[in-house]
Amino acid sequence: MNVGLSKSKILKGLQCPKLLYYSKYPPVDFEIPPDPSREQRLKEGTEVGILAQQLFPGGVEVPYEGLSVSEQIARTRELMAAGQGVIYEASFEFSGVFVKVDILVRNGLGWDIYEVKSGTKVKDENLWDVAVQHYVLGQAGLSINQAYLTHIDNSYVRRGDIDVHRLFHSEKVTAESLVRQAQVPQIISSLKMVLRGSEPDTDIGPHCSSPYECDYKPYCWQHIPESSVFNLAGRGINKFDCYYQGLISYDQLPLEQLNDKQRQQVLATLNQQDSVNREAVNSFLEELWYPLCHLDFETFQSAVPLFDDIRPYQQVPFQYSIHLQHSKNAEVGHCDYLAYPGYDPRRELAEKLIADIPENACILTYNKSFEIGVMKNLAEFFSDLATDINIRISNIRDLMDPFRKRDIYRWQLEGSYSIKKVLPAMVPELTYTGLDIADGGAAMQAYHDMTATTDERQLSEIRQNLLNYCEMDTWAMVKILDKLKTLVETLS
Ligand code: SF4
Prior knowledge:
By secondary structure, this protein is of the alpha/beta class. The chain has two domains: 5-196, Lambda Exonuclease, Chain A, CATH 3.90.320; 279-491, Ribonuclease H-like superfamily/Ribonuclease H (Nucleotidyltransferase, domain 5, 2-Layer Sandwich), CATH 3.30.420. Helices cover 43% and strands 17% of the residues. The protein has 19 helices and 14 strands. Strands 1, 2, 3, 4, 5, 6 and 7 form a seven-stranded mixed β-sheet that branches. It has a five-stranded mixed β-sheet with strand order 11-10-9-12-13, sandwiched between helices. The longest helix has 36 residues, at 456-491.
């Protein structure tokens, strides 16, 4: 059997032997569901890698496309022999392990390795990534002087063209890499055994989500019932300890070992029993006033700031939806904003937001820390608008509060208070099903798609999907608030 390992396969194997096995022999009855956010992350990772090459200009790339593995290795050797000082995607193999080095830089008689990551700090799994390369290159006869992890520096603020020397920070990890290298031969040998053997019987565990969310979770977790120990909200009992003891479904759980909220969650689901603290919900409602405005933002973020005065991964608002009711019995009106791609939308958005929300309006959001964070950033950035924005911030209330505090609890919530769970539990007739965009991650992806297309029809379709989704978010809040009011009236 031809046993070939790559750096990425070794990292999979370090997370879980079964994951490595599936990467070569995928289960026949399962297909990894499409995940636009993962695709966006991969695309962004590639873009970041290409940008980082500018840290060492004048290099030559050894392409993956169009060359076999042995041709990539031969091409790398040719470049080294020809005196090339910087090689991108340099390729090496030792003992059946193939690696590509993001940037290989000649340093005296030896070489330095630069591994580029789109994250903002060095993580343990990144060190293994470097250690495997370091080992293979050493065994392939290269003298390695230093190993670096090059990651995004999120204190960088874009001004004009991207300054790669400030966007990236290279951290020397030679010592950490050398420490791990001692274990690399043993790891390689055991992972080869995994690929030579039959499917490992690895059980599910914390490794299914760490360091990465595993693509095979829907497959390996099929035996976990819908309401299980893993749905318990909050910390407390060790969920995997319970699972390994066979305490999985709600009726098997040791109630006395759960905290109060978890016990309430389990009992409510088992008995299909709702609860409401009428006084507390009523106090929440009495804090609201008219005009009453329901507000929701959509934001994008990117490793490489798209516009001036933006940091890496800064949340930048590009859309909002508002449902506004001027008085108790008035019609609920709607207005919104959605940026066109290609320019910084913040000024336009902030000015329209101030115009759309009356100064004296009560602003209801769902999870107010997010909306407040977005508005504070706008107020800090546009000092001439700060007073108007800060007045509106002081008028924000949080529709999530009664659900977070469990002043109202529906058994279907399973301990969650996210709007995506609360809406079907409170207003089952209203649903996100059928919308092309159904969560904030997909909305961000849609914004990036808008920036990448010049097709007018596609652009208009994406815009309409975004408008529908964001409007649904605030309409859901209107309907949830209506239900709370009706409930309090019914119980009085
Ligand atoms: S879901 Fe868990 S057990 Fe299954 S392959 Fe992934 S990490 Fe391994």
